[in-house]
Design goal:
The complex is a heterodimer of chains A (285) and B (148). Chain A has 1 helix and 14 strands. With 285 residues, chain A is mainly beta. Chain B is α+β, with helices and mostly antiparallel strands. Chain B contains 4 helices and 6 strands. Chain B is globular, with a radius of gyration of 15 Å.
């Protein structure tokens, strides 16, 4: 408001102000309030309060005729906020995505062989997403998946290196700190559908084709204070397996469930490890 | 079918907004001529969305065509002469902004706002904006609404 005094000082009443320099009428330092009013016949500047005196009052009245033009000027611009303006963020049907980081563990230990399992991965390292813009999205892409299956004691993996057949063996007598794990790494190709309910909640249903590029059995145990760490490579895993999964997400954080019906080993090259369930947490789904 | 519904709805909204602006010179600008014009954006909001911000009618027009800007300014100045309260600023002999409070329409306050961003000092833009607003909102509320 105080600025207005200075601004109004620049106001020119065009009546008879020709080329003469303007005269200073008055100077009021640090006014409390400045009120400028205008009527059809004139303008008035009223100053209330000053640096020295709160009750100070000053009124300046100018009469002008119908042909006069009153100019005002101020240093700031009007920063317009236009309500209801359409967002410049356009929505597109197609987009490139990186999504679906998940980590989970085996749901059940009902198998005779597998004690527990562990699973993590990224569904879409890169994917293509199609949105209907009405709450449905379909995406496909390429991702990474890692599964680990740990055998129930006292079973452990053992491989015949001439035939590359993995069998089930028992640990030697007096073994402690034992574990035997099958690890399978896959490049996965997910195809998924998502249905949104409101802005934040959505369900996901999908399936993946897994290209199991790497598999390893690792058996670890200790006998008489001696550690044994035996790894079997070159095992014959099923190169292609298929999983189905579903997820519930709120604000892109949720839970997922994944079912793997396929045997991890090729027929005749290892024990049957299939029909596994994983349950876990997922983000950015 | 969807297209026809949208057209009918747009016509209806335009009629409601036009009725609200009855008696004003700027009404000429809201006759639909800018709906498909390049470089013009017209927004009409009535109903629940407008009520959320204390209005019954919100009608804005932004034009980038300089020849149209002169017409908009001329009509705004004409209406401004009838305003019961106004706040205006001229720059280089042209109206930079004008905030006019018009006579009430029944119970609703009526406001016209005009801004020529070509005359802005910091970041001039080739946009002239005209907003007609009607509702219970007072001057301060309207200023808060349209000022960052």
């Amino acid at each position: 408001m105080k600025k207005i005094v200075l601004l109004f000082a620049t106001m020119l009443v065009m009546a008879q102000a020709q080329a003469t320099a303007p005269d200073t009428v008055t100077v009021i330092e640090q006014p409390n309030q400045v009120i400028i009013t205008e009527t059809p016949t004139g303008s008035q500047v009223k100053v209330i309060g000053s640096k020295e005196e709160d009750d100070y009052s000053y009124t300046y009245t100018m009469q002008h005729s119908g042909n006069d033009t009153v100019h005002t000027s101020q240093s700031t611009d009007w920063e317009l906020n236009l309500p209801f303006k359409k967002s410049s963020n356009k929505e597109y049907h197609w987009s490139i995505v990186c999504s679906g980081l998940y980590i989970g563990a085996g749901l059940s230990t009902s198998y005779d062989l597998v004690n527990n399992s562990f699973n993590w991965g990224l569904l879409h390292i890169v994917g293509i997403n199609y949105s209907t813009l009405h709450g449905q999205e379909i995406s496909f892409g390429i991702g990474y998946d890692n599964k680990r299956f740990s055998l129930k004691r006292p079973n452990c993996f053992a491989m015949d290196e001439t035939t590359n057949i993995v069998g089930i063996d028992s640990y030697p007598e007096g073994t402690v700190d034992l574990s035997s794990v099958l690890s399978v790494r896959a490049i996965q190709f997910p195809l998924q559908f998502q249905q949104f309910f409101g802005k934040n909640f959505h369900i996901t249903l999908g399936g993946t084709m897994n290209w199991n590029v790497y598999a390893k059995c690792n058996t670890h145990y200790k006998v008489n204070k001696t550690h044994y760490d035996v790894s079997y490579r070159g095992i014959k895993q099923n190169k292609l397996t298929f999983d189905v999964y579903g997820a519930l997400s709120y604000n892109r954080i949720g839970i997922y469930c994944r079912y793997s019906p396929c045997n991890m080993f090729k027929q005749g090259f290892g024990p049957e490890i299939k029909n596994t369930w994983m349950l876990g947490a997922a983000i950015a789904l | 079918m969807k297209r026809i519904t949208i057209i009918i709805l747009t016509c209806l909204l335009t009629s409601i907004a036009a009725m609200a602006q009855n008696g004003l010179n700027i009404n000429r600008l809201f006759d639909g001529r800018y709906k498909k014009a390049a470089g013009a954006t017209e927004i009409i909001v009535t109903g629940a969305q407008a009520r959320e911000i204390g209005l019954t009618v919100y009608h804005s027009l932004s034009v980038t065509d300089k020849s149209q800007a002169n017409l908009v300014e001329a009509l705004v100045v004409k209406d401004g002469a009838q305003a019961v309260d106004k706040e205006v600023e001229y720059r280089n002999g042209q109206l930079y902004y004008g905030f006019y409070t018009m006579k009430k329409s029944k119970h609703d306050n009526r406001y016209i706002f005009y801004l020529n961003q070509n005359l802005a000092r910091k970041s001039p833009q080739n946009i002239v904006t005209l907003i007609y607003m009607e509702g219970l909102a007072n001057q301060d509320e309207i200023k808060k609404l349209i000022r960052k």
